[in-house]
Amino acid sequence: MQGSMADNETFDLDNKLRDLSVMYELVSSIGTSLDMKTELNQFLQKILKRFGYTSGSILIKSKENTTFFVAASSGFQSSQDVLEEIVPFDHFGLRQLLDTQLPLVKNVLSAADSGYMLVPSLENQIKSFSFLPIIFEDQVLGVLRLFSAHENSFTEKALRMLTQLLKQLGYAINHILTLQKIRQAEARLNRSHERLTTILHSIDASICVVDMETYEVLFMNQNMVDEFGKDYTGETCWKVFMGKDGPCDHCTNPYLLDAAGQPTGIQSSQGKHPITGQDYLNNSQAILWTHGRMARLQISTDITEIKQLEAQLRQNCKMEAIGVMAGGIAHNFNNSLAIILGNLELAQINMSSSDEVYDYLDYAKTAALRSRDLTRQILAYSRQSSPSRKPLSIATIAEETLNLLRATIPTSINLHQSVSSECSDAAIIGDLSLIQESLFNLCNNAVQAMDGVGDLSLKVETVYLQQQDIPSQDKSSPGQYCRISVEDTGCGLADDIMDKIFDPFFTTKAVGQGTGMGLATVLGIIDQHGGIIKVHTELGKGSTFELYFPLTEAPQEVMVLPPPVYTTQDTGRILFVDDDEMLVQLGDSLLTSLGYQVTALTCSTEALELFSHDPEQFDLVISDQTMPELTGLELITALLKIKPDLPAILCTGHNAEAVSGEIASLGIGAFLQKPYELSDLSHVIRKVINNKS
């Protein structure tokens, strides 16, 4: 009896060992790769072979958790034997299995069980089947479906073994699914990292990440690598970027975290790039880096062009302010100057030039003319006066400028002139008086900078400017230019005033020695001519101002009109109209001194009424532009309707730009800008009358 029991125990142990061996053989390969369908097919084939079942399949829950999909199948005659790759939860028996998590076994089939087959072609071959859940942590991951050609194929022992196998299979499937999710997440992360890296490297800004504690460079984008010539990742920022022995004084690290160690937000600063010298805007922010490290993310943007545009905008605003001021004061100021200048000339007419008072009047007249020139400089700078453009020989202009300077500057100043042979016949389109004025201003500044002793050189040459030679704030185009250089050996200019030298009213001279409009006027004139101005200076050694004018293909010798001849032999009847009583009296006296018969009025409507009664009593009309009731243009227009061949002259304290088109279209003979000299008035009257006759 005891021997029989021992034999049975040995037999049971052998069976268990065989069962364990079978189970190990079946599950040993599961989970060794991420190709779940291949592994499940191999597992299924081993099950069918080991247990002698006819066919089977493994269903796995879909990601949506609403259906199963066929992950493995074996033992079917063809792929058509698998009815559907997608199997709904509500298919025969599956819902019951999901709810109970227990095997569904049919060892003897009846006609009512045909719906469980899923494969119609197998209905007459299958005698038993079993659906077993694949479970992991109380969740059904899938279903093992097994079919047999024999009845009672699914014994308790077989089901126990299958259940144990499916537990291991559940672990394996979960492992595969988890690894797949991890790999998919890694792939998404890698794609995201690649996209982010591509974006960071393509941004037109220098981007770096620096450890806030160790100052180690953790990241540099390609733009920053290109600027510094090397990727300094892993090195100390203040050492490789700034060449310092310790953290920079301007480092933003102390401001990026609060007392609790939390980021304070973006901190902005501006500075010069240590390599390129360009202006940069630096935006820094504390971020959490890997391994819990706090790092400084810094994005540095080149704002050089923006700052240049801002400077240009400020300059334009200053010019606009000067323009508004010039327009507002020019009329009244020039009217006052006209009265002063006219009365001085009248006083001189009535006395001998040998009279001591005559010289005093001459000094006053010179001062009045200087005031007039200053007003015109303001108008030129503010673009409220229009240059008279025509082809000009720039070499001739330079020569005439030096000739005039020789008569006015100390003999201790050595003048030098150099005109290259290729530009001796070159020409530009411009206004003769304005260009000469700009050269006079530069030369006078140079003389004063040398304190009466030194060398002044004026050099003329042609150059070709590439796009990179043209300052970004200038709108000039590449091409052939005439360059006029005014060089001195004076005191030079300090760096801290270089951005102010073209500002209106800025001067380094003592009070009373300069108006501060010289270089401002030069800049305005150069802008009007579509030119460029550059400055090279060294403190204590001198300065060079370079003026660039676009060349024209139509060179023409400079034509300078001879000064008008003063005469008192003129005759004729003139209607003179101005709303200023003092100017009316002055005009009457000046015209009378020239020999004309004058009717002078302060009311434009009264003048129109008087003229309409007898148009033939007047040979010429001279009218101010800015008047109440009828402006000068309106008055002359009305007079010309009555007498179309009437010679007319329009005067104003403003510039002619605003009314130049109407002056030409109406046939007005001439325009006189106040204040004018008696000789100018005489010349213009004779010219207008002669043109009409």
Automatic annotation (TrEMBL):
<dbReference type="InterPro" id="IPR011006">
    <property type="entry name" value="CheY-like_superfamily"/>
</dbReference>
<feature type="modified residue" description="4-aspartylphosphate">
    <location>
        <position position="624"/>
    </location>
</feature>
<dbReference type="GO" id="GO:0000155">
    <property type="term" value="F:phosphorelay sensor kinase activity"/>
</dbReference>
<dbReference type="InterPro" id="IPR005467">
    <property type="entry name" value="His_kinase_dom"/>
</dbReference>
<dbReference type="InterPro" id="IPR036097">
    <property type="entry name" value="HisK_dim/P_sf"/>
</dbReference>
<protein>
    <recommendedName>
        <fullName>histidine kinase</fullName>
        <ecNumber>2.7.13.3</ecNumber>
    </recommendedName>
</protein>
<keyword id="KW-0808">Transferase</keyword>
<feature type="domain" description="Histidine kinase">
    <location>
        <begin position="328"/>
        <end position="553"/>
    </location>
</feature>
<dbReference type="InterPro" id="IPR004358">
    <property type="entry name" value="Sig_transdc_His_kin-like_C"/>
</dbReference>
<dbReference type="Pfam" id="PF13185">
    <property type="entry name" value="GAF_2"/>
</dbReference>
<keyword id="KW-0597">Phosphoprotein</keyword>
<dbReference type="InterPro" id="IPR003594">
    <property type="entry name" value="HATPase_dom"/>
</dbReference>
<keyword id="KW-0418">Kinase</keyword>
<dbReference type="InterPro" id="IPR003018">
    <property type="entry name" value="GAF"/>
</dbReference>
<dbReference type="InterPro" id="IPR001789">
    <property type="entry name" value="Sig_transdc_resp-reg_receiver"/>
</dbReference>
<dbReference type="InterPro" id="IPR036890">
    <property type="entry name" value="HATPase_C_sf"/>
</dbReference>
<dbReference type="Pfam" id="PF00072">
    <property type="entry name" value="Response_reg"/>
</dbReference>
<dbReference type="InterPro" id="IPR029016">
    <property type="entry name" value="GAF-like_dom_sf"/>
</dbReference>
<feature type="domain" description="Response regulatory">
    <location>
        <begin position="573"/>
        <end position="689"/>
    </location>
</feature>
<dbReference type="InterPro" id="IPR035965">
    <property type="entry name" value="PAS-like_dom_sf"/>
</dbReference>
<dbReference type="InterPro" id="IPR003661">
    <property type="entry name" value="HisK_dim/P_dom"/>
</dbReference>
<dbReference type="Pfam" id="PF00512">
    <property type="entry name" value="HisKA"/>
</dbReference>
<dbReference type="Pfam" id="PF02518">
    <property type="entry name" value="HATPase_c"/>
</dbReference>
